[in-house]
């Protein structure tokens, strides 16, 4: 193995290490984001604890039923 081939192999090795390390960091970052999202409710359940929704429920509960009786 002469100097040119060795330098090329070493460069390829370091480049592969750099790509692998960046992929590992990206995977860790993505995993952290997923873990943060898991604690939050999804869909309509996310609004059930919202202050504006709770206030609306209180108002509806306090008001008499305005529907005509049958």
Give a description of the structure:
The chain contains 2 helices and no strands. The chain is mainly alpha-helical and 70 residues long. The protein has one domain (3-62).
Helix and strand arrangement:
Elements: H1 3-38, H2 51-62
Strand content: under 5%
> Tell me about the biggest sheet?
none
Distance between the termini: 96 Å
**Tally of helical segments:** 2
Which labels suit this protein?
mainly alpha; 70 residues; 2 helices
Summarize the structure.
The protein has 70 residues and is mainly α.
